[in-house]
Queue: 4 jobs
Job 1
Amino acid sequence: VVAYNHDTSVFIFATPTGEPLNLPTCGCLFLKTSEDNEVVRPYTPIAEGADFQKLAFLKDEASSAGRFAVMVKRYREWGYDPDKGFDTPYFRASFRPAGACSNYVHSLRINDVVQFQGSGKPRLRYPFEGVRRVNAIAVGAGVAPMVQALMKILYAPHDDVEVVLLYGNRSVQDILLRESLDAWALRFADRLKVVYAVGSRYANVHSGLKSRVKKDGFSTTHDDLQRPPELRGFDTLPESKSQARTTGWVGRDAILAHAFPPSPDTRTFVCGLPAVYTTLCGPRSET
């Protein structure tokens, strides 16, 4: 287990026989929790075998056939539970229970046995026939399949597909695998552009405003209300020909500003929580 940040770790597993997974690019595994509270969730390995060396974060980990790495973000309970006395439309819409599968994975110890079921096979397989440009739109841990695809596209000989990765997170500290993404954006600047979108759809909401007003008075906060809250570390995000940064939700404005426009040889991949699909491309069952 390798801790990445405040709520995300990389879990390195080994197949029972030492055989490689041989998943197709962007293919996933279905992880099953314990029998007592069975939950199944899809996870895309970010590296397998020799691919460990392509990720700066894992380059010191032993890479061998049969070993694969899964990045899991731990989802804790968020908001007010409407079943505990706060049953209003607002609280019910914003409440998120703790992630059953992610918390199960984070409770694992070295040498624990985990059951993976089969594999999820992507509809579009690499090499992407007839595709010259790819928009990869990811939010949070949804960057995992994009990283898997990028390693294949960027390192494959004679592949000239161009990619725009539009990657959204609530804060700079939530960005995953940034060291590899930044390095790839510079190394493959003619084919990859990485755009970090930081914030949320509620970019103009100032948390803790009541306490600030009590302390500093209304006059000191009036100007602050005219712009989104300051994002800690935002100015550390690189800007170059192949790197960009923007604030707010990964939505229409960011897509129009940075993504490739629709065309017969362009494909757009999306990965994130259910709300991301609903907002950008429709439910997963309809895509």
Job 2
Amino acid sequence: EAIPLQQQLPAAAHVSSPEEEAELMTLREAVTASDLQYSSENEVNGHTLNALNALALRLGQAGRHGEALPIFQRVLTILEDNLGEDHAYTIDCMDAVSRCLLNLTRYEEALPLCVRAAEAQAIAVGAEHPDTIAAAASQAACLMLMDRSEEALVLYQRILKVSERLRPTDIETISLLNMTANCLSDLGRPGEAVPLFDHAVAVSKRTLGADHPETITSSSNLAVALQRVNREFSDGQVQGAVANEHVDEVMPEGNSLKERAAKRVTAESRSVNMNDQTRFVTMSNREDL
């Protein structure tokens, strides 16, 4: 039998606005109505999956990941049982579950899902597809959050090489330049990080503009790396001047590697969830569901 929704959702973690609660109530009612119509958990139907996915997405967008997680997990179980682990919908949902876990700082649980999603994407669409690169980036971010920077660096360097070759000016490539350089800097190799940060700044300014958040992030990252190099080499007067120029542009309050990885995971979670909604919204019209 389908698990009643009220048994799946924990209590709300924070007080929401009346408008938000009204929207969530409507989404919950849609799930309940679909559960009543389709009582068997094995009876896959687009209406139930759409209702569950819409509710989980909205909860995640509101920062209520603890409530979104069991719903995404339910959807994942349905998809795995009926469509298999290598289906596009299953892979998307696997990624959504892993991002919920990352946002809840449950990294040990998230990592196996990140690995599975990346491997499944590579099989489904190819090792160099943007979806595969994004899944691998999530895996690397998880490793960073677990203080496994050496492993994260190897993975970031591999996918950055592919992304630079195929999509040199994409925002994802710029992000990968930053995160790869962040790994190097965190591992005590700021001299190797500086050229990557510098390249990220140049590409970001040219393609996104000087005021774009990614450009600002790249500039501040470069400034921090240059300052670290200057501390190691006291005769770096020219580099020091360049560092101060970038510091004047913007210096983030939280600049640790773990803080940057956590912010990246949160930002990616919002964007991937919106893509998931586009995929799931068409489920009710598919013949294989």
Job 3
Amino acid sequence: HRPREALEHGVQEEGARGVEIAASKRARTAASVEAPDSEASIALCASVADAAAALADTDCIAALVRRPLGEDTQSGFAEYIESRPQWPNIDELHPLEATCDRVAVIDFSDVASDDTDPLEVARGYGRNLPPRGTAGKEASAKAAIAQVFKVLPESLRMVAAGDAISLLLALRAHTGRQQYILRMELVRGDTCQKWHCDQNICRSLVTYAGPGTITAREGGVQRAPNGCVDAVRDDAAVHISAGDFLIMKGGT
């Protein structure tokens, strides 16, 4: 479930799809933080790298890193949301549109496995960036990341961009995927109000302002024959707070 007035960032694998930054969301994640040996588990990890590595376990459907935001950072993001920021091109949205976002595709396809600066070699594509195929003019992944977060005040931009870089590098190292979608999302209304099975191969979420993301242990999920979520017991819900990293396997 996504609440009103929130800011999040995420990464989703493309094809799998990429990395996403966003606000709160009820999404499919079945397992137990307390019982990692259960048939399907949410792994509680110490770092983003450990969380990405945990996905290789077939019984792990999600990985969680508890990382409370510092007081100054938390208040900074809250004040930013309270200021009701007007992002470029926001006037293109329908008045009832619940979210607006800034997106870039990050492509590591031409990066060698031993490259010391993969984000400088990787390419980035999106609004206000050169399109694919413009030889010699394509933007680096670093430039694309900077473009996504440029609307934030500098101190907040450094936090969100640093998180995105950590997620991208960890997922590339441990999933073998080469393309990701990086998304920063400003949630202005209620979206994803129902429990559902996520339709990305992999999605990571970090909330910066707002109640956070809600996911669930599989043992408390009631599914229809086609796998869709019918209901979730209240005691199966796991609350992902602002600042925490959540990486989920999806439904495809």
Job 4
Amino acid sequence: MSIILTSNPPHPTSPFSANVTACRAMEQESLLELVYQAVVSCKGLDQAADKLETPSETVTTIAARVICDHPQRAGAFEFLSGPSQPFPFVAKVNRKFLLACAEGHMSLLQLIGFTTDEIKEWSADGTQFRLALFLLTDCPEAVSPTWDGLIHFVEGHSPECATKLKKHAATFKEMGFDELVQLATAVEQIPGEQYAQVKSLEAFAKCPDDSLQATRAFLRHALKCTTLFTGDGFSRHQDGTQGIEELLIRRRPLSTLNHRLIHLSP
């Protein structure tokens, strides 16, 4: 059974209330229907326009992020991302996203970029997955995470880090999917002293190592660009096929967003 979190009855001038209460959905209700309901309430509409046939402004102004957390943890599911991820990736809700919802929870998680092994491992240790849907208009800083988009975004927060990224931008753009995955895998697990130099914008700005490998380690550990990241603005499946269109935004509390949460059960 899925759980959709809905707000209290909305204020006449706002589609959402800051207080969120849990409402259990009926068993026969699919993930797709829950997403439609959330989109409708996000937009303050009476019905979802066009649905799958003609993606419209109704859908394309909505973003989504899967939040992974332990429900027993204090403050669980209160932010779009954890403290170590100040700039979370979010997905655009479009026709491709809705088609994945129609196929089920696992299909949606894989489209967004989760691997099967990650989903199984995290589920086994009690981690829960919740889909947050919210208005993109609440995130004016959103940028497409292409290589150029990343540089632009990082430059606004750390010109020093952006300079190091620019040095290797051409190389990253020329690398194929397998090469990018190989490089990213090499920096997935690194010694503590190396991690300390790439774990944040502040740390990498002071790091004397501006090599290709160190820069990719910075992308992995500071910006959380996964091993499947290719810098084309889309998530990737494990086989390299293109996933969903993504955006990079600032970390913020869900209470500051017009949003809905849906409990995923992969």
